[in-house]
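Just wondering, does anyone understand these tokens?
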Amino acid sequence: MERMLVLGHRGKLGLALVRSFAQGFQVEGRSLSQGFDAADFRQVRQVLEAVRPQVVANAVAFTGLDACEADPAKAFRLNAQLPSYLARCSGELGFLLLHFSSDAVFDGTRASGFYSEEDPPAPVNVYGASKLEGDGFVAAGAERHYVFRLSVLAGECRGPGQFLEKMIDRARTGQALRVSSDIYCSPSYVRDVAEAVRAAVLSGRPFGLYHTANAGCASLWEWVDAAVRELGLEVPVLPVSHLTFPSRASRALYTPMTSVRQAPLRPWREAIRDYCRAGGWRIQQPDRQP
């Protein structure tokens, strides 16, 4: 049985990857909550040499647009230099590298349609720039690699720092919600994404970049409102401009994605129904096991 190492295995994406690959792979994980510091490349190398995986999934990222603007050194360390180091290790140690990108690499200036793998990226903030640089390092440095470009995700998480789960948590206390109705994306269920990643690996799909998102386009307001209604929560979900929420970072307002390299995932409305029915919105306490 092949060994798989998931870096960031206690995050939203990492949890889904561990569960998806549990059948057929011997999966191990490392996360910050367990004392793993992905910014310490000596520690990263020690883990790689100890586990000797055939597949490495890098689900580590420094996210948050304003957080990245405030600490660009950390953003580029984790989002660009870490992927670069893993790409080099991929050749030296012989593992397949799974890397995860973001729709934030696009400037969001198009008026309609979808961004595909063939569209040129043009990030407008530090987060997007750091993710794009990481994508380039992986593509140039790892012969055996996949780069999966993702949109905003819904799914099981630990801790309160996830957008949709935080909105639902507030709605369950009876609070009215205000959500941007002028930011558009392809909101996705992390379980669908993880299954698509697994399918790519098992099928031996050609290496390279894949847009991996549930089909369709929605504003953040439509996405949150759909989840709140699916859960039967009787609270107002008010559409507002993104300017209602001051930010130091520029933001791409329109980044729905499609793929010209693989079949689309199911529509986002179907995915949000399953997410709600599965209870994926319940926020769990952070895992503090050693």
